[in-house]
Design a protein that fits this description.
Elements lengths: L1 E5 L11 H6 L1 H10 L1 H8 L3 H4 L2 H22 L7 E3 L3 H8 L6 H17 L4 E6 L2 H12 L4 E8 L2 E6 L1 H13 L6 E4 L12 H10 L32 H12 L6 H10 L4 E5 L4 H9 L4 E5 L2 H13 L1
Parallel strand pairs: 1-2, 1-7, 7-8
Antiparallel strand pairs: 3-5, 3-6, 4-5
Length: 315
């Protein structure tokens, strides 16, 4: 069995998707639906433009869905599970049929990106090292600002987010106290995503999602806010699937991403191969660290598409 995971904001890179557009009719169809501006952002925009949240999110969502379309064009059956990292969860929702179409998903992502941009300044950094040491540094660096651990990516990678001054102190403490063995790496994003600073965006998103209708997933869907399967968590199961998804989307924008738990849950479900669809290989690398027994592949260009399809057809 294989699962697909979708890249999130921060994975963007200039030129992403261009070779997929050239070799895959299905991927080309996704990019063409997205329109000329997003095609420019994916194929031609420089790294500085791609840092802007309102540019990044629609572009990465489009890239994720184009990579997935290229995969499904060549491989049967459907995946045995899907998940997405942060923004990538919207691609997972679309792949699972929760969001009815790519166009609907793109419209929602565009609105979400503007809300997150308007939420105000913030910063994020990856804490590379033992999780307890990272959490200790968070407590020491917070002072009177917002600073929280927000992405639990692997046993040796925990992302923190908050006010820029607090992120600065976190990075200085990591560099100054070598005994903790933590390295801080600034992330190319323009906000403190998945932190309490996203509360204004969450409130705005609660209004936005009222205009959309959602369905229960047609294939297993793993959630950022729990790390487990959509079906497994009773506290989110109140009301209709439409109400449940709306609540999850609002919660997710201001809550931590439990990515390590997601991959562990997929492994426990018997998933043998995980394919990252979207720019970069960040999630592929995390799979190898969390569950080395799982085959980790990625699709971001013509070469990686060919390799992933060939490997799946061998199984």
């Amino acid at each position: 069995m294989y699962a697909v995971v979708f890249s999130g904001q921060g994975a963007q890179k200039p030129g992403m998707g261009k070779s997929l557009y050239e070799v895959s009719p299905a991927a080309r169809g996704v990019f063409d639906l997205a329109g000329e501006e997003i095609k420019y952002d994916c194929f031609e925009a420089d790294a500085e433009r791609l840092k802007q949240t309102e540019v990044t999110q629609p572009a990465v969502y489009t890239m994720d869905m184009a990579a997935y379309a290229a995969l499904r064009e060549s491989v049967e059956p459907s995946p045995a599970g899907v998940a997405g990292f942060s923004l990538g969860e919207y691609a997972a929702y679309t792949a699972a049929g929760v969001i009815g179409s790519f166009e609907e998903g793109l419209s929602l992502v565009k609105e979400r990106s503007l809300l997150m941009k308007e939420a105000g300044a913030g910063a994020m950094a990856a804490g590379m090292g033992d999780r307890e040491a990272v959490l200790e540094l968070v407590e020491r660096a917070r002072e009177n600002d917002v600073l929280e651990a927000v992405n639990f990516n692997s046993p040796q990678q925990t992302v923190v987010a908050g006010d820029p001054a607090a992120i600065g102190r976190f990075s200085e403490l990591a560099a100054g106290d070598r005994s903790l063995g933590v390295k801080a790496i600034a992330l190319p994003v323009s906000g403190a995503f998945h932190s309490p600073l996203m509360q204004p965006a969450a409130e705005g998103l609660a209004e936005v999602v009222k205009d959309y209708s959602f369905s229960a997933p047609a294939i297993p869907l793993y959630l950022n806010v729990t790390g487990g399967n959509y079906e497994d968590y009773a506290e989110y199961a109140v009301g209709t699937p439409n109400a449940k998804v709306r609540a999850l989307m609002v919660c997710q924008i201001q809550s931590p991403v439990y990515w390590q738990q997601t991959i562990e849950a997929m492994a426990a479900a018997g998933i043998g191969t995980i394919i990252e669809a979207g720019p970069g290989k960040t999630l592929t690398g995390l799979v190898k660290k969390i569950a080395p027994e799982i085959t980790a592949l990625h699709i971001e260009d013509a070469e990686s598409l060919e390799a992933a399809v060939a490997r799946l057809k061998e199984e």
